[in-house]
Design a protein that fits this description.
about 240 residues; mainly alpha; 3 domains; 3-stranded antiparallel β-sheet; two-stranded antiparallel ribbon; about 10% strand
């Protein structure tokens, strides 16, 4: 879901005139931040207009140093933003009571502020926002990047199996260090699971349909169907 949001915001930003001179790398960073803001969904945290503005400002500040990867991250960031707003409320209340009491400090409000600040510090610690990037534990940073890389791989395993934009056939994009080369996929033909040499062996009774099915990880019924509906018609030219 997050990757889809990033792409959505990236395309939207790319089409805006004010971002025409910005590199794609910078646009992706901005798109990721917008995606994080959308995932955080802080609109319902507060109802006051000024507090909504403050909430968005705080969220933007935190997202400069933190990336939302899951629901737990989102909930923690939301809780932190809300506690920051509560701190502002308590500070305003403290100032009002201080002014009305001619210098006296309301201990109950002061105690509530201290507890709230402790909670804010705990959540910042949890999110790793208490240290500057260069002061963070290198092993922790590397572990975080590794987790994100593994997550990206799991979500994009099929990205390099594509349909040719000219002939419509499925092709396999193979990685190279500098570029990509395309090749015909060995087990697909016209979007159908298919391997001509393998099916030929079945027709010639050199292997069974069951054995071919194990290679293609399908059923023997499928092998018999694809031979009848595709392979034999192609061989016979019909």
């Amino acid at each position: 879901m997050k990757e889809e949001l990033i792409q959505k915001h990236f395309q939207k930003l790319k089409n805006l005139k004010q971002y025409k001179e910005i590199s794609e790398e910078e646009l992706l960073r901005l798109a990721e931040k917008r995606a994080n803001e959308e995932l955080a969904n802080i609109d319902n945290l507060v109802t006051d207009t000024e507090e909504k503005k403050l909430a968005k400002k705080l969220l933007g500040k935190y997202l400069d140093d933190f990336d939302i990867d899951n629901v737990a991250d989102r909930n923690t960031v939301n809780a932190l933003v809300l506690l920051e707003i509560i701190h502002v409320r308590l500070q305003t209340l403290l100032n009002e009571k201080h002014a009305s009491a001619k210098g006296a400090v309301p201990l109950q409000t002061l105690e509530a502020m201290h507890k709230n600040l402790d909670k804010i510090a705990d959540l910042k610690n949890k999110l790793g926002l208490t240290k500057k990037q260069e002061e963070q534990d290198p092993l922790k940073v590397l572990t975080t990047l590794k987790k994100r890389f593994e997550k990206y791989i799991n979500e994009h395993r099929d990205d390099f199996l594509v349909k040719c934009w000219k002939c419509g056939e499925m092709i396999l994009l193979r990685r190279q260090t500098t570029d990509y080369i395309s090749g015909k996929h060995p087990f697909l033909k016209d979007n159908v699971l298919y391997n001509e040499p393998l099916l030929k062996l079945v027709v010639e009774n050199k292997i069974t349909a069951e054995e071919a099915a194990k290679v293609l990880e399908t059923s023997s019924d499928y092998i018999e169907w694809v031979i009848k509906e595709h392979y034999l018609k192609e061989v016979n030219g019909s």
